[in-house]
Structure formats: C-alpha cells, structure tokens
C-alpha cells in the first residue's frame, strides 16, 4: 500500500490492447516501455516532493544540467512476476531500495527513503499492470533511476535530483535463451578499483565497460569477466551479473571486495544453495584456480546470476593466452537446480518461507 501522496495523470492515449498484445508476443529486453512513469523530485531545501505518476514521456533538460556533464546517475533493476493466482509480485524490493541508497551515498546524491522507492513500484503497477507478461520466464522489468538535475557547470554534488521509475516487458536477456555463454577474461581493461565506484549501481561503471564488451564480442564472447585492478588475477564479476563456481559440494562466489556489485540474486543464491545442502563460500577466486580446476574436473560448473539474466551457465572461457571449457560446455545440474529453485519462488510455484516476495 502506498503511504505517500502521488499525483496521478493518466495517459491520454494509452497503447491499445492490440499493441500491448503485439509487444508481449515478443518483448525482448528493454525495447518497449509501458504507458506511464513515476517521477519524484528532490531539492536541498524541500527534500523529496512532487511525486507523480504520469504518461511516459521525454525529459526536457537544460543543456547545462549537471548529469550531462559530471554524470551523477544511478539505477536499479528488479522484476514484477505474474503469479498463478493472477496477482503480481516482486522479489526483495527493499534490498534494491537499500542498494539504491548506498549507490546514492557513493555518488554524493540524495538518498530516496526505502518507503518511497517501494511505493513508486506500487504506483506504477497500479496503472500499468496489463503490461506484465504472463508466459513462463517472462516478467515486467522495473528500472528505478536517479539523475542530478541542477543546472550549472560547477563541479560539486548537485542540489537537485530527479528520481524516475520506468518499466519494460522482458523476455529472455540473452538471445540464446538458457544456453551456456562464452566469456572473455579482460586483462587489458578494468571495471573498478578499490575505493572506486564498483560497488555502486552507477551509470559510469557501465559506460566504462563497453569497450571491453566490444572486445569480448570481437573474440566471439557474449560477456566480459572483470578481474581485479591491481593483479588482473582475481575474478570479480561480469558486466551485469555476479559469478558462482561449483566445486564438489561447495558453491563458491567471489567475496565482496568493494569493487563488485553486491547482487541481490547473488545474496539469495547463497541462501538457496545452503538450503540445497551445499557448503557456500565467499572468497577470492583466481583465474588460475578457475582454469586449473576446470581442467581437472574439481570445478564442475560456473554460472552467472543477476536480475535481468536470472541464472546463465558459463560454458567456455577465452583469454589472451588461450581458452578452456567448463562442464564440457553444457548446463550443469547444480546450475539447473538453483535456477529452478529461484524461478519457482519468483513465479509463485514454491512457498515463500522467507518473505522475499512482495505483492505489487
Ligand atoms: N553485477 C552488476 C555489474 C550488475 O549490473 C548486476 C545487475 O543488477 C548484478 C551484478 C546482479 O545484481 P542483482 O542480482 O541485484 O540483479
Ligand atoms: C539487472 O540485472 O537488473 C541489471 O541491471 C543488469 C543490466 C541490464 C545492466
């Protein structure tokens, strides 16, 4: 239930039912947007105010708006899932709200209260529920974000911010579906360094990743694996996903070093893997350990996880010095079991014993 007053302006000409059906027939990822968006403003003197649900529309921005020059921009990503009883639920939204505040702190931006973040999701779903896909594996991707909107060229934290929430029906993130991907170990470029912005969901992190992503694509890889800045040896994460390694009865993920994003899927899978009887370990994992144990078979599976990509197996690894396979390039049983456990919870086919699901 919403506790904040939002001013609501319905779209004067929302998409026709035929258009919604056409989009939902093949949504892709991030290509189409619902009829409405939420906006909330922040100024140093007024605090958070002017909460609105309004027609999805372009933003008028003065060319000297600070975000265009100095890049104070953060975002979140979560999904709304159609449930068997016809309701719509989302997964651990308060964790996203908390991470959004942490990202804001790191970028010296105003912190949106968790209550307002969660309320904004309810408000958007109240008007755009018909855009939630109902087929298996599909969802409505929710994209909360915030930019600095003060006008001026002085380099300092802005005094004005705009929070927005938009939504986009989502099919599979990878065109290949749940097939193992090939990844590129990036030793030329890095994503983040200790003391930097790697743990924030900060737009600049993604801008800084694109050149290496293009390099990965040239090598025939779908994704980049980022390594630590100092030694280029320790595995951190992928472009939009965290990584897990299955070694015997252990499920291992790189420890949060401050340079990688603390994924909510990552955190949830540490719990679900323990439920499945695995010993879970958060510790540094080197590229040598990955390659060596993949060869000996001590490492049987590797998978990536995140909201958009869910759980995606990693089948092949390429680097400047060669390449190797994991699991013979196939999807392993632990990857499949954890994927099933997570999606059963999200789509309402398994009991939510931890209160992770929130009705929208
Ligand atoms: N790492 C990065 C860089 C990401 O952008 C994401 C996606 O949000 C993740 C990891 C996975 O995080 P989550 O599971 O919270 O979606
Ligand atoms: C997500 O999983 O929500 C992400 O933000 C990853 C990517 C689309 C940037």
Automatic annotation (TrEMBL):
This protein's UniProt keywords: Amino-acid biosynthesis, Aminotransferase, Branched-chain amino acid biosynthesis, Pyridoxal phosphate, Transferase
Q: What is its EC number?
A: 2.6.1.42
- Residues that bear N6-(pyridoxal phosphate)lysine: 201
Q: Which InterPro entries match?
A: Aminotrans_IV, Aminotrans_IV_CS, Aminotransferase-like, B_amino_transII, BCAT-like_C, BCAT-like_N, BCAT_family
Q: Does the keyword Transferase apply?
A: yes
Catalytic activity of the protein = L-isoleucine + 2-oxoglutarate = (S)-3-methyl-2-oxopentanoate + L-glutamate; L-valine + 2-oxoglutarate = 3-methyl-2-oxobutanoate + L-glutamate; L-leucine + 2-oxoglutarate = 4-methyl-2-oxopentanoate + L-glutamate
- This protein's superkingdom? Bacteria
One GO BP annotation is: L-valine biosynthetic process
Cofactor(s) this protein requires: pyridoxal 5'-phosphate
A Gene Ontology molecular function term for this protein is: L-isoleucine-2-oxoglutarate transaminase activity
Pathway field of the UniProt record reads: Amino-acid biosynthesis; L-isoleucine biosynthesis; L-isoleucine from 2-oxobutanoate: step 4/4; Amino-acid biosynthesis; L-leucine biosynthesis; L-leucine from 3-methyl-2-oxobutanoate: step 4/4; Amino-acid biosynthesis; L-valine biosynthesis; L-valine from pyruvate: step 4/4
Q: Which NCBIfam families match?
A: ilvE_II, PRK13357.1
**Family statement drawn from the similarity comment of this UniProt entry:** Belongs to the class-IV pyridoxal-phosphate-dependent aminotransferase family.
> What is the protein named?
Branched-chain-amino-acid aminotransferase
């Amino acid at each position: 239930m919403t506790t904040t007053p939002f001013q609501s302006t319905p779209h004067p000409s929302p998409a026709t039912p035929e258009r919604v059906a056409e989009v939902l027939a093949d949504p892709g990822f991030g290509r189409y947007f619902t009829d409405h968006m939420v906006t909330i403003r922040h100024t140093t003197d007024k605090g958070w105010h002017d909460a609105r649900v309004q027609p999805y529309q372009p933003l008028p921005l003065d060319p000297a708006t600070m975000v265009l020059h100095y890049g104070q921009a953060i975002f979140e990503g979560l999904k709304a899932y159609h449930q068997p009883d016809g309701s719509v639920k989302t997964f651990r939204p308060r964790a996203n709200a908390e991470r959004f505040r942490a990202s804001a702190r790191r970028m010296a931006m105003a912190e949106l209260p968790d209550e307002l973040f969660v309320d904004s999701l309810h408000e958007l779903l109240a008007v755009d529920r018909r855009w939630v896909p109902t087929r298996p594996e599909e969802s409505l991707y929710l994209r909360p974000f915030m930019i600095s909107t003060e006008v001026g060229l002085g380099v300092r934290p802005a005094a004005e911010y705009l929070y927005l929430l938009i939504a986009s029906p989502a099919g599979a993130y990878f065109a290949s579906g749940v097939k193992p991907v090939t990844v590129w170990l990036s030793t030329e470029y890095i994503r983040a360094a200790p003391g930097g912005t790697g743990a924030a969901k900060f737009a600049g992190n993604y801008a800084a990743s694109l050149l290496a992503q293009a390099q990965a694509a040239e090598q025939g890889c779908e994704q980049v694996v980022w390594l630590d800045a100092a030694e280029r040896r320790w595995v951190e994460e992928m472009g939009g996903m965290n990584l897990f390694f299955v070694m015997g009865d252990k499920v291992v993920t790189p420890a949060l070093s401050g340079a990688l994003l603390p994924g909510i899927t990552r955190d949830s899978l540490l719990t679900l893997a323990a439920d499945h009887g695995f010993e879970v370990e958060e510790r540094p994992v080197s590229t040598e350990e990955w390659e060596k144990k993949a060869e000996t078979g001590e490492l049987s599976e590797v998978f990536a996880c995140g909201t958009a990509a869910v759980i995606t197996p990693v089948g092949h690894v390429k680097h400047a010095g060669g390449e190797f396979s994991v699991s013979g390039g196939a999807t392993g049983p632990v990857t499949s079991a954890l994927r099933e456990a997570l999606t059963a919870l999200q789509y309402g086919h398994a009991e939510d014993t931890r209160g992770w699901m929130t009705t929208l």
